Task: inverse folding
């Protein structure tokens, strides 16, 4: 079967590993009635073609805001980008014109949202909403668009796609709706997909199916994927590397297995300990003490210090930089960084 | 769907009987004797009065009058007014006038109300938005008759564009001013409702999705935003069509439009039971049918709504 994707195979496909997106020192704040909330405070991350970056962190840590800024769908006002660059294939999207930016959205970078029910238009059929991508971006006719919508629905394994193409979002189950979101993001075969908690709203049994589908398609079309989640369990199998966010900063980055095996930040350690495990059945589940900080008044020093078991005076006064980390012999570990004054003790201790 | 419509139509039957009975009782309980009043200051001959009362069935107890009236109604006879004209003739003269007036008011409130609402909803906080908010607030807070007198003063007395009152109720151009006054209050509601609805939908997740899909702004507005935003407005407009016909009474009085409002006003003053009950009954049916149509339209606009 020839799929939509193959039909509009692009010739500017990137080699695996070519840098796709680089977020550099991004700062975003929200001007609210109560003051200025600094939601993103100097985030750096990058994704290459074919690579999956998982962005991890508790709710409110700025994961979605970063993604919205990349996508150009931040609410402005109250949101405001105060500093930084977002390079897509080397071009800064923050300084682009509106029309140039719009042509990237959907065609080069696509997004999958958490709640597919509210993210899909309730009064338009799913076929229309899928076909719209081809009509608007490729000038397809109504009939062609519908055929392509059916192919896409087939591709994400929605049963009886042809019969269901005129159905409305509310007539599908949660898992099927999220498949439609995935199909929509995939439709123009973008270079990069940003999935913001794509499985959080789904039943546990459906979560794995949707995640597998996403990973499979990503590998097949060699796309970059930014997978945002607050659930460490979700990312282990699909991600290549992980960036852990806390209070609008990246506090640790690492290749996925190294991070699981050997975290270099107390916050990551806490997150790992709070994953339920079968061999700990019956024991009380660990939870990091305290609450994420109020962004209107982030604690001085390391934002995590009030919740940290090993915090020192230094942690309460000085914001730690995102250090390169080394192994016991002092050799730099590639891709590994930690924003903790005590990373050595945490990693090797 | 079919069974839903049938159920709704069946529900109209008790409403129909209830309304007619209620109006009948109310007219009956108005103070004064309508027949004696017909003679004005002249002393009435008791024999004549008695014979008139007999012709109009007024010498019977109210429940008998009601049954008699309903019996005739089901044979298509709305009864006769005290002037001797059949009520159906009177309504055939007056209803077209009121329908025209209400339709003109309706078009006016719909077109201008939607335009203003969309404009201010899309450009929140702009000067245009503020202006729309203030103007609609003024219209909402001023009673209709004051608005009517202002319109008469400005357009008839000062500018001389029209005569203060309508000379020929069948002349559409003369109905423009009364229709504008009649539609102005609803126009203000339509504009505000549209504005609020657009504002809410602009923040909706699916609009964010539409932006993320890389759709051009005009596609986002016309395909995604308007369709959703207009659902509550269409509902309001539908029910308002019925309300406009009833609401025309005041406007018709002030502008001397010879529609059902005027006829009804006179009939109430003269305690003309058959005329009052006939007109109100037709108005109630119009209202019921309009609201049924609105509910059906609602299901067309919003696929999440299904009637079974
Ligand atoms: N539209 C907005 N207006 C004001 N504050 C916002 C808005 N969107 C996000 N924020 C703030 O930014 C912070 C980060 O939010 P978000 O990126 O959504 O967190 P998460 O990591 O859970 O995705 C939150 O504390 C939130 O209060
Ligand atoms: Mg989020």
Result:
């Amino acid at each position: 079967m020839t799929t939509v994707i193959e039909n509009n195979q692009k010739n500017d496909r990137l080699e695996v590993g070519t840098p796709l997106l680089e977020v550099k020192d991004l700062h975003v704040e929200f001007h609210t009635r109560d003051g200025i909330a600094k939601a993103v405070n100097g985030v750096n991350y990058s994704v290459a073609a074919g690579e999956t970056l998982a962005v991890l962190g508790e709710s409110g840590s700025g994961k979605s805001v970063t993604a919205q800024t990349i996508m150009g769908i931040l609410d402005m006002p109250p949101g405001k980008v105060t500093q930084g660059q977002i390079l897509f294939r080397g071009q800064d999207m923050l300084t682009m014109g509106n029309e140039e930016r719009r042509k990237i959205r959907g065609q080069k970078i696509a997004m999958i949202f958490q709640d597919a029910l509210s993210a899909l238009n309730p009064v338009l059929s799913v076929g229309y909403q899928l076909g719209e991508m081809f009509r608007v971006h490729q000038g397809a006719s109504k009939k062609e668009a519908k055929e392509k919508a059916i192919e896409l629905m087939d591709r994400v394994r929605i049963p009886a796609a042809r019969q269901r193409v005129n159905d409305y979002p509310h007539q599908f189950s949660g898992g099927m709706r999220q498949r439609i979101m995935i199909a929509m993001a995939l439709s123009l075969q973008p270079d990069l997909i940003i999935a913001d908690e794509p499985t959080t709203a789904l039943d546990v049994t459906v979560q794995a199916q949707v995640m597998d589908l996403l990973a499979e398609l990503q590998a097949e079309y060699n796309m970059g994927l930014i997978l945002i989640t607050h659930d460490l369990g979700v990312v282990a199998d699909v991600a290549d590397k992980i960036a852990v966010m806390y209070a609008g900063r990246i506090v640790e980055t690492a290749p996925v297995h190294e991070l699981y095996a050997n975290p270099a930040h107390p916050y990551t350690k806490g997150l790992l300990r709070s994953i339920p495990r079968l061999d700990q059945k019956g024991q009380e589940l660990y939870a990091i003490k305290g609450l994420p900080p109020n962004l209107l008044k982030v604690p001085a020093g390391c934002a995590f210090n009030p919740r940290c078991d090993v915090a020192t005076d230094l942690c309460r006064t000085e914001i730690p930089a995102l250090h390169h980390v080394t192994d016991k012999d002092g050799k730099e570990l590639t891709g590994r960084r930690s924003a903790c004054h005590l990373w050595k003790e945490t990693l090797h201790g | 769907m079919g069974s839903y419509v049938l159920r709704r139509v069946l529900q109209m039957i008790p409403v129909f009987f209830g309304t007619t009975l209620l109006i009948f009782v109310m007219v009956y309980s108005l103070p004064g004797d309508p027949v004696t009043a017909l003679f004005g200051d002249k002393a009435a001959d008791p024999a004549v009065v008695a014979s008139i009362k007999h012709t109009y069935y007024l010498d019977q107890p109210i429940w008998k009058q009601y049954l008699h009236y309903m019996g005739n109604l089901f044979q298509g006879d709305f009864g006769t007014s005290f002037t001797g004209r059949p009520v159906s003739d009177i309504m055939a003269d007056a209803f077209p006038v009121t329908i025209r007036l209400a339709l003109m008011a309706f078009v006016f409130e719909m077109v201008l109300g939607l335009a203003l609402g969309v404009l201010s909803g899309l450009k929140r906080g702009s000067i245009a938005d503020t202006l729309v908010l203030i103007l609609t607030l003024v219209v909402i807070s001023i009673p209709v008759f004051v608005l009517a007198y202002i319109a008469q003063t400005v357009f008839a007395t000062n500018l001389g564009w029209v005569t203060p009152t309508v000379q020929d109720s069948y002349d559409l151009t003369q109905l423009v001013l009364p229709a504008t006054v009649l539609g102005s209050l609803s126009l203000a509601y339509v504009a505000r409702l549209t504005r609020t609805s657009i504002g809410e939908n602009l923040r909706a997740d699916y609009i964010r999705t539409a932006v993320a899909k890389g759709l051009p702004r005009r596609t986002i507005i016309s395909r995604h935003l308007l369709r959703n935003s207009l659902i509550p407005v269409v509902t309001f407009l539908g029910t308002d069509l019925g309300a406009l016909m009833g609401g025309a009474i005041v406007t018709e009085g002030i502008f001397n439009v010879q529609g059902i409002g005027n006829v009804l006003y006179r009939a109430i003053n003269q305690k003309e039971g058959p005329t009052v009950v006939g007109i109100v009954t037709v108005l109630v049916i119009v209202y019921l049918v309009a609201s049924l149509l609105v509910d059906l339209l609602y299901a067309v606009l919003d696929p999440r709504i299904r009637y079974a």
